[in-house]
User: What shape does this take?
Amino acid sequence: MICCLAFLCITTQSFGQADKKQTATKESAKDTSKAKKDSLASKNKKDSLSLHTSPSALPSEVKYKAKDSVVFDLENKKVYMFGKQGKEPKAHVDYTDVKLDAAYIQIDYTKNVIFAKPLPDSAGKMVGKPVFAQGKDITHSDSMAYNFKSKKGKIYNLFTSEGEGYIHIGEAKTLKDTVNKKDVVFASHGKYTTCNLPEDPHFYIESNKMKLMPNDKIVTGPAWIVVEGVPLPIILPFGFFPAHNQKSTGIILPSYGESATQGFSLKGGGFYWGGNDHYDAAIKGDIYTAGGYRLEFESRYKTLYKYSGDFDISYARNTNGVAETPSFSVTENYAVRWTHVEDVKADPGSTFNASVNAASPGFFEKNSYNPTELVNQSMSSSINYSKRFANSPFNLNISLRHDQDLGLHTINFDLPSAVLSMNRIYPFKNQNDTKKHWWDEIGITYTATLTNHLSSYDSTLKSDIVNINKFRTYLDQEIPISATFKVLKYFSLTPSINNSIYVYTKKFVTENVKTVYNPLTGTNQNVNPVDTFSGIYLAHVHSANLALGTTIYGMYKFKKGKVTAFRHVLTPTITGVFSPDYSAPQYGYYGSSVVDAFGTVRKFSYFSDAAGNISGPASGRQGSLNFSLGNTFEMKVKNPKDTVNPTKKVKILDYLNFNGGYNFLLDSDKLAPINISTATTLFNKLSISGNALFDAYHHDKTGTMTRFYDWDVEHKIGEITTAGVTAGLSLNEKAKNTGHNIQQIKNPFVYYNYPETYASFDVPWDLRINYSANYDALHPVYNTQFGTYTTTKQLTHSGTVSGNINLTKNWKVMVTSGYDFTTHELNLTKINIYRDLHCWTMSFEWIPFGTYKSYFFNIHIKASTLQDLKLEKRKEYIDYQ
Assistant: This one.
């Protein structure tokens, strides 16, 4: 009866026919089973649910199947499962979260033990080794035994994965930890590796004693490292490895190095706090024997469907030279990075984003190995908040902006800049009137920009940023009114009135030039003293425009050949502009001052600055007629390979534009230079763009316009004063999507040490060539002897090339270089070599010459679990100086 009740828990599925040697046993088992079932069926069916199961029965159902046969031994309460002979003989058992596959499986219900092993195939090779899975853990072994109830087992020649690591064990026992209610594996002769080769891993850490807690950790006794079968003379007193894919709090081991200016060092050491799925943090640092150090704090955060970002701040005390010597110096440097991105689903009515990137001028020079950061001379930041007001045309944007020039040591801030804008509205349009009126087209927009601007230097920033008098605050309000009408059927007429209202809090008045003795140079210098007045100052600016434009289409069709048609589209526009001269005395926006010892008088604005950071009324009358002519050229070609679209469009020129104007109200130089711009893309590979300024006026040596060119004298009607052209060629082989990428380092917090994060092997080869040239016929040159400027013609042009190629499946070379044809010097040249070593990665970065001549060799394990097991060798650019 006990036997029958035990087998009520079993769902039996038999596949195939039994072996002839086992026919009698199987027939006996079938007859006995049938008799038992008939006996139970003959009882009262209504009372079948009241049967009492045996205490020895398993609490859950055991499901099993086999490709060849399943044999029942009812007398001994055992089940034998045989996989069919072949490449993948398989018997399968499924019990709760436990799954087992093997060539041969035996279940003993008396002892609640399951046993599995491989079987020989026709050639005598053992196939169908047991594969044991419990939850997400998968174990490979030569043979195994497992007790369903006690959760204890014994495994021989185990191979399993835990987190990023793989475990090789000769003999192991599994026990149930009654305290933590977790499985624990005790093993002898164990190997831990992150190499996924099951038979012969490239490296491993070996120990005679190992304790494995699945999804938790691995602890070993004394261990040693073996590479390619050769034990290294390094003995570890113990080993501790995480056995999960979650973030772990712990110590970040430093790497050692040497600097020619700061001495020996330990770099990148610190502490990492795993936090949770929403944020983590790390604090790291460098320390040098010459007394310098660097501290860095970085944190990342993310909330799904709300926001994500990272924050990094670094402080460094850098030394140069030998202490207690005249050449010894100490500098303090800093760097701040913050990126914040708000998800568009977080608040559909508003957004908040930040991109902060600021540093002291010497930070990257002393603390970075990234050539891009070393040559970068500009940095900028912005923090933006925008709000769309529902059921209204208004939008608000508030931003904090910063930009700095590391070479000139200048810093500009907008703290803050606020923009209130109104979408175009039609105040005279009646929504209930279906009849169209000309005044329905009149539209108004409004933009108010409030700016609080500070221009400073890094040496005076601390005092300037807390001094409110150093800031220049102004409000710029723009109220354009315009309408568009169809005239003469094919033309668009757009009259507009532009209204600007400026509000300033400071007025700057420049006095006549004065001569002041400079004790540093021992010479007299001319200066322009400036008086500052505080208050509220208004400036009103108005202008009127009238634009007339149309679009002309031209097409020529070909009867023969691959080209079926040629199309030319012209968009001519003529615009009349009128604006008074706001530098006239009656407006009170400009003053006059003597600017040099020769008595030259020039006008200056009371409000705007020379750098263009502050907007203001423009000088000079405007009564001009401007024109623009846009051109696009394309053709249709036959496409016989596509039956759906037998022809396709091919652009010859993306655009060819001409812009110019003539100001009737000027006393001289009425014709403005003609601006010419063009761009095209050939064969989807080569992109070319260019621009030029054509000037009809002759210029003297100081760049001043004097007269029109005389055809009879100069044999030309004008000249190109400035021009530029850029060309870029991009060639690459199609990506194979192999997912074969290698990573230099897994640690996300060592960003400044490893500029090239990934090397992708998906693209077999890639080549990019860029060329740029600029011509300036009026390039100013300062004459130090006379203190004046003269103009001369200047041509500058340079080219860059970058590319990579997979030499083999595992070797990749990347090269970046360039040449300046003006100075006849090579640009920054960098060569990167990558080697994928399966579970290891090797990289070599080399800058062979130039200011930043250096090299960096690195070989390390790919998995982040053993990221500190690496070999590095570098020589910094400063060591060559």
